[in-house]
Amino acid sequence: EVQLVESGGGLVQPGGSLRLSCAASGFTFSSYWMSWVRQAPGKGLEWVANIKQDGSEKYYVDSVKGRFTISRDNAKNSLYLQMNSLRAEDTAVYYCAREERGGYYYYMDVWGKGTTVTVSS
Amino acid sequence: DIQMTQSPSSLSASVGDRVTITCRASQSISSYLNWYQQKPGKAPKLLIYAASSLQSGVPSRFSGSGSGTDFTLTISSLQPEDFATYYCQQSYSTRETFGQGTKLEIK
Fold first, then answer.
1. Which residue of B has its CA nearest to A33?
2. Model confidence pLDDT, tens digit, residues A86-106
3. Confidence label for A75 from pLDDT (cuts 50, 70 and 90)
4. Residue A78 and residue B71: Cα distance in Å, rounded?
């Protein structure tokens, strides 16, 4: 079964750090771009970052650039999001998603259940 | 960044109704437009990719159309399980963006 399982969320103080993980199974992880998408309480979806299969390309939404770092370990079938200098507005459920880019168009076809990050003092 | 604007933001409809949700991009995105369904407390689910291609396993009552800047998601005959929030998303730009969502409620 194709599956993504996020972990690492929790309560952190403003200015603190947290590292999210996403464990992939049931597919060839190293063949796919991967993304992080977040959803603040009661709000819509926001794409956060994505990373190419070999990690050579990474892109970020402007609001997290310089604070968050996306990375992957293909040997461990794992995706990561290192979050530093956290702010209250980073409070959200963070989803890991697989990006299908095998054809001409790109889309997120597999999603994890999410992990909750709360930034509060 | 490319801005995605959905309308309406919310919609009340009845089982059996035909419903259309619109998504407009701030610049041309060709057919790099995807639609997702999200139910409360659940992860989003891909419905339509490349503007009009139905994802495997998604009922045929869902359809998508459009290209360039204007797109629509149509549900031909609403079923009870379709009441949810729908999001469009552009993948034309390396910095992908979502619309603000359309909440579909039972009338």
1. B94
2. 999 999 999 999 999 978 899
3. very high
4. 35
Task: Supply A71's token pair.
Answer: 């990375």
Q: What is the pLDDT of residue B24?
A: 98
Sign of CA dihedral A6, A16, A12, A94: negative
Q: Residue A5 — very low, low, confident or very high, per pLDDT cuts 50/70/90?
A: very high
Which residues of chain B have a CB within 8 Å of the CB of A45?
36, 38, 44, 87, 89, 98, 101
- B72 phi and psi angles, rounded to 5 deg: -135, 145
Beta strands in chain B (DSSP E): 4-7, 10-13, 19-25, 33-38, 45-49, 53-54, 62-67, 70-75, 85-90, 97-98, 102-106
What per-residue confidence (pLDDT) applies to A104?
A: 87
Q: Which of B52, B91, B93 to mutate to test the interface with A (most CBs of A within 10 A)?
A: B91
Q: What is the mean pLDDT of chain B?
A: 97
Residues linked to residue B37 through DSSP beta bridges, in sequence order? B45, B86
Nearest residue of chain A to residue B30 (CA atoms): A105
Residue B31's closest CA among B103, B100, B88? B88
Which DSSP category does B39 fall into? Answer: -
